[in-house]
Design goal:
With 149 residues, this protein is mainly β. The chain has a domain of 98 residues: Deoxyuridine 5'-Triphosphate Nucleotidohydrolase, Chain A (Distorted Sandwich). It is 7% helix and 36% strand. It is built from 2 helices and 10 strands; from the N terminus they run E-E-E-H-E-E-H-E-E-E-E-E. It has a 4-stranded antiparallel sheet with strand order 1-4-8-6. A 4-stranded antiparallel sheet has the order 2-10-5-7, with no helix packed on it. The protein is globular, with a radius of gyration of 19 Å. The two termini are 36 Å apart.
Length: 149
């Protein structure tokens, strides 16, 4: 199933987001700028990197901005607010809050793939209030209650 998403390129030099392989679930996002990302312990947070695109999702859809596994595994770079949520009524530039957990600065270039965009359809919730919930085997056990491994 395909869904039509309107996209506006702020920087026409950048490619449109694309799927890296035929089996990819998310589209690659690019940096609109060159940047230096110091280690977390030097700045205590992330740096907002613009992607150079705006999108208009259809109602009933959302987009998650997710880290790239290669950047995380090889460079210690991830996204501070993972996943970043883009609602269907947001029309601003997609921004990525990158953070560097390595011990050295990371030098990013304009046009490099910095994140992924996953677009999903979601249901709307209709609450039905009850006096108590149905019982399950797990019950109220959480936070590791099913075991560590």
């Amino acid at each position: 199933m395909k869904v039509k998403v309107l996209i506006e390129r702020i920087d026409k030099e950048l490619s449109l987001p694309f799927y890296a392989t035929s089996g990819s679930a998310a589209l690659d996002l690019y940096s609109r700028v060159d940047f230096i990302l110091p280690p977390f312990n030097e700045i205590g947070g992330g740096i907002i990197i613009p992607t150079g695109i705006k999108i208009a999702l259809p109602e009933g859809y959302l987009a998650f901005v997710l880290p790239r596994s290669g950047l995380s595994a090889k460079e210690g770079i991830t996204i501070l607010n993972t996943p970043g949520l883009i609602d269907s009524d947001y029309r601003g530039e997609i921004l990525v809050n990158l953070i560097n957990f390595s011990q050295r600065p990371f030098y990013g270039k304009k046009g490099m793939r910095i994140a992924q965009l996953l677009i999903l359809h979601y249901p709307r919730v209709e609450w039905e209030e009850v006096e108590s919930l149905p019982l399950t085997e797990r019950g109220e056990g959480g936070l590791g209650s099913t075991g560590i491994l």
